[in-house]
Amino acid sequence: MIQKYAEFNNTSWIGVPACQYADRSWNGRLSIQTAYFRKVFKLESTDGAEAILHISAVTRYRLYVNGCGVVSGPCKGDYWRNYFETVDISKYLKQGKNIIAVKVVAYPPYEAQHQNGEGQGPMFSHNGAAGPCLVAGGIINIPGQEPISLNTGESDWSVCLDRGIEWETPHLSFWLGAMEIVHGALLPAKWNSAEEPKGQWSQSEIRWDTLYNKYGEIFPFPLKRRPIPLLYEKEICFSKEMPCKKNEFLTVSFDDETKTIYVPAHTKVQVELDVGWLTTAYIDTKIKGGKDGKIIFRYAESYANKDSRYEQYSEDFKKTGDAVVYLEKGERNDSLHYDFIGHEDVYYPSGNEESYQPFWFRTMRFLRIEIYTEQQELTLHLPQLNETGYPLPVHTTFSTSDTTLQEVWEISLRTLQRCMHETYEDCPYYEQMQYTMDTRLEMLFTYALGGDTRMAKRTIEDYHSSMLPEGILQSRFPTQAPQVIPMFCLHWIFMLEDYYEQTGDASIPRRYRPTVDAVLDWYERYTGDMGLVEHMDYWQQIDWVEEWDEYAGMPKACLYGPSSIHNLIYAYAMQIAAKLNRITGREECGREYEKRAAKILKIVDETCWDEKVGAYREGPSVDEYSQHAQVFAVLTGLAVGEKAKNILAAALELKDMRKCSFPMMFYFIRALEKVGMYGKVSGFIDTIKEFVALGTTTIPETPFRPRSECHAWGSFALYEFPRSILGVKMGETAWDKILIEPRFICANDCKGSVYTPKGTVEVAWEKKGAHIQLKGTAPSGVMSTIILPNGNRQVLQSGGAFFCEFEL
Predict the structure, then answer these.
(1) One-letter-per-residue 3-state SS of 742-757
(2) Which residues does 406 contact at the CB level (< 8 Å), separation at least 6?
(3) What is the SS3 string spanning 181-235?
(4) Which end of the chain has the lower number of beta carbons within 10 A, N or C?
């Protein structure tokens, strides 16, 4: 037999022995299970210690060494890929007894879960029915001492099955998975730090080898190396306490010196804390006393009120699990006129000195703590926060004296950072899942900030791996609950072009050509009698448009036949597929896709153009109009010249136009840019400014009635400001040439450093009336061309400094 990864030589997966389940009653279905694994050993010294640990688990783990949190994992995978992490733990070792401890939470498979409030796992995780399992490999080498094996299955690892945690799915979001209800007295106290912890401990059970079977059989949870860097963790602090509404609780504050709250017996108190901005962080709270009492930790993105349908939604969720709760929001930090509504963990203190650490990071801007004491007083320390996220390189900077525009940049950056962990995410608070339309834009924003392609490559592979037997890609992945939005897989094709343009690496589009073919062939099979695609299976969602709420973001035309939007985006994807095929040597296939795209465009023009209105209808038989159809008519080249300008003007001005939400605003801006109307972008920036005025610290999901307060598809400023306002654009694939063409809009002055793979471009401009002063530097050795509004050009053959003064 073969071991693919030498890191796991002589290792096995381990789990909880049957004896620890002996007193558990079976309720007919699997539930969430938690187990604690420990490896204890003694070191005479730590001088020169080398200790690299390779680790994975089913489903999720948190690693501690001598009580210190080290890393969480494994990186989100799927049925064929259980990723493992590699960490250097040498700095955590000490002379004497050492404890490597791992908390593992196993979520049940999707088939065993309910969505009606009973505990379930997060939608982003792939779950099995094996219960909590762990695999680790590594050796501690210290000069003059015998090597110590950390291998599971070879060395002694003990395990204790949890009896103190219950799980309850929050009614605001079943996608996120269950929150915790913890009985402190039933936990194995000091399990990750004490030589003799509480709890029922036994030798772990060997479950599976990590070897490859010589007959080609794949064992459960096949190991794969983590494809992206480890997430960062850094300590942050709350910025202030918030005033609380008057109610039956006594409002208290943390002592300035001790950072504690003292609560007498038989008392109910409340305190609300503001981080200062929305974040994702592990929380750790030290507690003393309070036996038989209760502490509720409630996490919110903003203050909000229940809308008129809130209670009905809650009842629907309890019955079916199929409900989405929207909240009424205004000033996001107005704690006196709005309520505190959010996900919550509940902790029942043991009465001893203890600490509570929820297993997964929590998303919050605000934290409300409610404390109920009974016979015993309680002391609670100010919670510690350990912010976590993807280590996103940020080399591009932007600054302006316009403070509101500066805030647009800053909240856009924070939004992207909070929507990047082990994958890109639609939102960190409700779902933490990777959706294709969101992700394509997030990848572009990542390129603009620092050129990082690691997450992009992982993402492209993820969606390829999501393909269903019929040839369509899933709309979110990894996930335990497959979902298909046909239009989303077309955005995956856009990703391939973006990656090639950024890097010049043709191996990626070449690798995935068969997947592109499968997706476009799936679409072609839905061609109807008119020659347009129609009545596709699954969810024909396009955008969260207010008038399309009744149809969950689907244009009404989809109910009756072809949708012009769907067909235009399909044609656009075929045009890009044609380009990718030519780049990778398939000229004939490229011509075929161009021919198919041209046919679609001709039919849309013949059946959906309304001469009287001066715009394209939603469908041949539906007299509705959307900005989306006009935008993609321009991007595909169906509308050019004055016609293109006129339909975009109509899209902005006609009252009955269905308006683009944030993700489609990006494409609207591209269309405006294509026809020379980029100045209109200020209207889209103003939409973000309106949220800044309401105290948001990240960009909400939609311009109207937003659910999530943090959705990175709205962070288009990260693309627009460097690329268009500062004006730094790609002149040739992989930035072999650079164009510098600033747009002197939205502010009177701007400056910044713009990352390119060839080096940083510095740009600064100032506008006084009609007078413009522009200066900067381009990377040495790269031909760079400065393009002025009047069409004049200044060519820097080998980069260097530039300076221009002119009148608009």
Answers:
(1) CCCCCCCEEEEEECCC
(2) 398, 399, 400
(3) EEEHHHCCCCCCCCCCCCCCCEECEEEEECCECCCCCCCCCCEEECCCCCCEEEE
(4) N
User: Which residue matches tokens 């269950």?
Assistant: 178
Nearest-5° Cα angle at 440, 439 to 445: 90
The pLDDT score that the predictor gives to residue 155 is 86
Of 322, 430, 320, 359, the C-alpha closest to 708 is 430
Are the CB atoms for 777 and 799 separated by under 8 Å? yes
Angle value at C-alpha 500, between 496 and 501, nearest 5 degrees: 115
pLDDT in tens, 612-653: 999 999 999 899 999 999 999 999 999 999 999 999 999 999
Beta strand residue intervals within 561-713, DSSP E: 609-610, 615-619, 622-626, 657-658
The one-letter code for the residue type at 775 is K
* pLDDT surpasses 90 at 111: no
Which DSSP symbol is given to 678?
A: G
Helices 486-503 and 436-450: crossing angle in degrees, nearest 10, is 20
Strand arrangement, sheet containing 33-43 = 68-73, 60-65, 96-106, 33-43, 158-161, 202-203
**Structural element, H or E, at residue 436:** helix 436-450
| The pLDDT value given to residue 6 | 86
Residues contacting residue 72 through CB under 8 Å, at least 6 positions apart:
60, 61, 62, 63, 231, 360, 361, 388
* Preceding omega of 59 cis (within 30 degrees of 0): yes
- Separation in Å, CA 114 to CA 74, 117, 168, 389: 24, 7, 11, 29
Going by their DSSP bridges, the two strands 250-251 and 268-289 should be labelled as parallel
CB neighbours of residue 359 within 10 Å: 17
Which backbone phi and psi does 736 adopt, to 5 degrees?
Answer: -65, -25
Kindly report the number of other CB atoms within 10 A of residue 114's CB atom: 14
CA-CA distance, 170 to 115, in Å (whole number)?
10
Give 541-575 pLDDT, tens digit per residue.
999 999 998 899 999 999 999 999 999 999 999 99
Q: Note the pLDDT tens digit of each residue in 340-380.
A: 999 999 999 999 999 999 999 999 999 999 999 999 999 99
* Structural domains of the chain sorted by starting position, each given as residue range(s) with its CATH number in brackets: 6-162+187-229 (2.60.120.260), 234-389 (2.60.120), 403-725 (1.50.10.10), 726-808 (2.60.420.10)
CB 185 within 8 A of CB 441: no
Beta bridge partners of 57: 134
Angle at CA of residue 62, ends 180 and 454, nearest 5°: 115
pLDDT surpassing 60 at residue 122: yes
DSSP string for residues in 442-456: HHHHHHHHH---HHH
Q: Are the beta carbons of 478 and 78 closer than 8 angstroms?
A: yes
Q: Do 444 and 719 form a contact (C-beta atoms < 8 A)?
A: yes
User: DSSP state, 681?
Assistant: G
Which of helix, strand or coil describes residue 106?
Answer: strand
- pLDDT, residue 322, reads 56
